[in-house]
Amino acid sequence: MSNAPAPDADALRRRVRDFLAAHDPATTPPTEFLGARFDAGLAWVHFPEGDGGLGAPRALQQVVNEEFAAAEAPEPPAHAVIGLGMAAPTILAFGTEEQRRRYLRPLFSAEEIWCQLFSEPGAGSDLAAVATRAVHDPETDVWTVDGQKVWTSFAHMADFAILVARTDPDVPKHRGLSYFVLDIHDPGVEVRPLRQATGEAEFNEVFISGARIPDADRLGGVGEGWKVANTTLMNERVAIGGRAMPREGGMLAPVTAAWRERPELRTPGLQDDLLRLWVDTEAARLTGERLRQQLAVGAPGPEGSAVKLAFAVLNQRTTGLELELLGDEGLRYDDWTFRRPDGTGWNERAAGFRYLRAKGNSIEGGTSEVLRNIIAERVLGLPQEIRVDKDVPWKELPR
Ligand SMILES: Cc1cc2nc3c(=O)[nH]c(=O)nc-3n(C[C@H](O)[C@H](O)[C@H](O)COP(=O)(O)OP(=O)(O)OC[C@H]3O[C@@H](n4cnc5c(N)ncnc54)[C@H](O)[C@@H]3O)c2cc1C
Rounded to the nearest whole angstrom, what is the distance from the C-alpha of residue 293 to the centroid of ligand 1? Predict the structure, then answer.
């Protein structure tokens, strides 16, 4: 790591332009382009040098993103979201130097895709209840993992998973977990599609039978999985709900486009609803912008739950309004083919697809009810829910 001062916005802009001059975004293959971008410290500017960053303030990432977007440079694909938004910040926070060097570059260049093996049939909101067991063999220094995970987005495209497993059933549930990186190609891992209301199978159920994880692929200490998982979850909420968006972007774009292009659909009532939605969406967008600027001085905290909550509420209101606006046409479903999507193209699909897919927004990354609990307890400081299972050994909990 050099002792040079972290660059400011102007220096970063120059750095990106020099990089673009040396790597033509139109002709350099995306993987090569992204790998070189990582090497130049322009992947995540707030990460340390050597880990894809420059040790710069986090807020300056926006400067870099704007420059690359203006040059229409290759970006990591949508299905790299779990690697980028969740695995990378966790590996940065808890990974050894060896782990950071091994995983971060191919994660950013999307040569390796990641998924998140957290939820189980009996552990979703109550993630600390996971029953998937990891047992350590001191002779081989390898963990053997058995269990079942569910709702695993993009597991069918993944190479690695971040995994939370129970390593000690004799202590209270939050204290008996550890956090691992699992090679999803291990013969003990079976990925099966789960078809959703949209007709697609974006997520999966994953059966783990005797999968092996070398101890070197543990992130954080044995028994510290809850702490590590919380870093992932805080980042997940910002990754899902706090993305930079242009005005009238995201799910609102097709609604305002239809409103402008098809005046015959307008009614005074719908105009009132659309204006309210427009203002609320803009307020949420600017709040997200403020959150990203606050992140300049640290990692995401419980405040990220608010942007994720607003994202879910607004997406469901927006897609509902779109169906109302389109009338009969909105009720016709465009395509119920069983597909394995790559996470892109929501706005190219018909309104019915967006309406159904947005239902998942208030479940994925923490349900809206659970996020309200987090905001109440950890942001507003209201009294905590009663938790009778906190000090009971996990194996003695009723199931
Ligand atoms: C599109 C999508 C993608 C997903 N991708 C992934 C993934 O890649 N990896 C992964 O691990 N998981 C993933 N999930 C799973 C997701 O994280 C869980 O579904 C979620 O945490 C809720 O858990 P659950 O489904 O078990 O519901 P439950 O936890 O059983 O909740 C049922 C209901 O009870 C409510 N509830 C539960 N606890 C409380 C409480 N304390 N207070 C008030 N209400 C409560 C909930 O809000 C919900 O309405 C995905 C889910 C969706 C929809």
Answer: 29
Pocket test for ligand 1, best of 119, 164, 205, 378 (most atoms within 8 A of CB): 119
Could you count the other beta carbons within 10 Å of the beta carbon of residue 138?
Answer: 7
Question: How many CB atoms lie under 10 A from the CB of residue 256?
Answer: 17
Phi-psi region of 72 (alpha: psi -120 to 50; beta: other; left: phi over 0): left
Per-residue model confidence as pLDDT tens digits over 330-374: 988 989 999 998 887 888 899 999 999 999 999 999 999 999 999
Residue 71: enclosing H or E segment and its boundaries? none
Q: Which residue has the tokens 């739950």?
A: 305
Residue whose pair of structure tokens reads 């402008």 in the numeric block: 260
Specify the ligand 1 atom closest to the Cα of 116: 9
Q: Do domains 114-222 and 230-379 have the same CATH topology?
A: no
Q: What is the CATH number of domain 114-222?
A: 2.40.110.10
Residues 228-258 pLDDT 10s: 999 999 988 888 877 788 899 999 999 999 9
**What are the phi and psi torsion angles at 132 (to 5°)?**
-60, 125
Question: Domain residues of the chain, as ranges?
Answer: 9-75, 114-222, 230-379
305: its two tokens = 């739950």
CATH class of this structure's domain 230-379: mainly alpha
| Pairing between β-strand 142-150 and β-strand 114-117 as defined by DSSP bridges | unpaired
Tokens of 7: 């660059």
Phi, psi (degrees; rounded to nearest 5) at 172: -55, 150
